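Tutorial, part two.
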Amino acid sequence: MAVGMLQHLLFFPIFYLTAQCMVSTGRERHGLVGYGITMYVPNCAYSCRTTIASSPLNCSAVPDTDMADMGDMAMDMTPTSSPECYATDDAFLQTLAYCISTHCGDLEARKIEQWWIQNVAGIQADQPDPKETLQMALAQIISPPIDVLVSGDPLQKTSLVPEEDYMANWNARGLFEDIEFKSEKYGLVVLLSGFIVPIASSLLRFVPFLKQLSTKFNAVFVEPSFMGKPSQPAGRLWTTFFLTYIVVINIVLSSVGYRSLQPNSWYPTKDMEIAAYVSNRLGLLSFANLPLLMLYTGRSNILLWLTNWSHSTFLLLHRWVSCICVLQAALHSAIWLQQYVVLGEHVSESKLLYWVWGIVGTLAMCILILTSLPPLRQKMYKIFLRFELQWGYQNWILVAIAVWSFDRVARLARIARNGIRIAQATVIDDDYIRVDVRGVTGEGHAYLYFPTLTWRRQPLSPTPSSPSTTPTTNPASLPKNEVSATTTNISSTHYSPTRSPPPQQQQHDHAAPTLALTFFVRLRAGTTTLLAHRRTLSVLVESGYNHYPDLSAYPTVLCVVGGVGITATLPHLRRHQGGAKLFWGVRSRAIVDAMEDNLSGVEREIFVGRRMEVRGIIEAEVKASKKGGGSVVVVSCGPVGMGDEVKMVFVRLVPEGEPW
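Running the prediction step on this input gives:
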């Protein structure tokens, strides 16, 4: 937890700093380009002003800067014009007014006057108003000007704007804003479809199909393995469809909607122009993917409440979206690097804050991807923007920060709700430990933190029980149909949730019940081995994730379980009002003895030290249900291989018409 949170805490400030350390400055605006923000409207007026503003005015002055501190800029003695200069210079005001009158004739006078007041002196929030209105400036022109201004030459009298320069500025600004509007629109498509598609596909489960038809749909389109193993989310056909969609939509939207207009005052060639548009699009889509990758990784992900998709599926989507996001950011940076090298501006540009923080942000993303590779992640688990806040690009980052912050606050709230508790650890045998936590409750799965041992979190499935009520189990009380054999290897568990009913109660001598959660932990390298040497220790409990769905519509619940996977299936066995059967494979009898009180009255067959014949068990139970005219739902929680085998049996039997 500490490593992942530190990565994100470093990641967001870097990118938000990037969003505010830019080259050009302007008034802060709210929204997105095309959605509340306009960049160069009206373009005719902006193009006139930009064409004229490249020339020194009568009131322009050389910057008063200490030559010793100017470095590479010491030889640049070009006069600059202040906002006050623009607002009061007669030649500038009259030339601009005449250009606007000849190029913006189809616009309302009110809108042009409003633009004049806000933009003649510049685009800063605090700047002087022009000394006269546009109409007043036009009234000062006695006769139409005949001299054509040469770009860069001093402007000393009312002049005509060169049409070639005007069109170069018109093309640059107009097309840039159009491309940016498309980019924002495509970013919204990526973000919203990544949110809506999982919800829409999950709503299909409420369509009043026949139950048998929906089951066959799952068997044909959802559960089959397209690549890898069925236990891996990437191996599921429906997940593969959505992953393909995410990749394709990002590629397509990065590649369409471009055109060129030359002459162009920003880009001297068509190739450089298109490359710049592509780079900007990639950067924006990278930002648009940030909220999605934060949403998918959250334990309080709202999509877990609105869909029937599992957390492991969203974690897989998080990894793919992260890779896409980083690739887009890296390409964005690489293309702009190449552009500035070709233009010979890299030396000066690379010293600006936006460039520095943009490179830092891109490298931070690349480092995050490298450190998230499975081998490194498992080891660690155990030990460009340019426009300030004018155009709303920072909003994509703010949305991502909001999503991430909500998830972290929700996690802390779950922990605070339970407070600091005392855990009691009991060694069952060489393979398993029992951990009892008094004063808390919950279902699904929980995360335990042992601050006196480590801040690494332990995801576990709890068993609601009372440590004070657990009797000492006599081996003679085990069911007669328990089978013993030689031990075999069982790997880590795969979780597939479902639900069940209260069992029949047996008589035991119990103390007064106490609210508590019990966890059975398989001993592995890391925190679990430290638990074996402690009996009492402080614990923080983050509980209440992945509540079990209601399976009351199925007459029979068949639980195929391996090892400590029994804790995730107990709710089904104890709550289901129909028939509930348990087939449980374990490494040793000790954990069976420890769970005996919880399994009172449950019909079960237990395989101690022996691998179950999963296929034969399921086929036999399903055929028995078919003869009785009922249906059965299979709940699997145990080794990955066992979960794969259960799904493969499901995919094979359902098309044959077996009752599920």
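Residues 1-7, 19-23, 67-75, 466-513 have pLDDT under 50 and may be disordered. In part three we will examine how such features are distributed along the chain.
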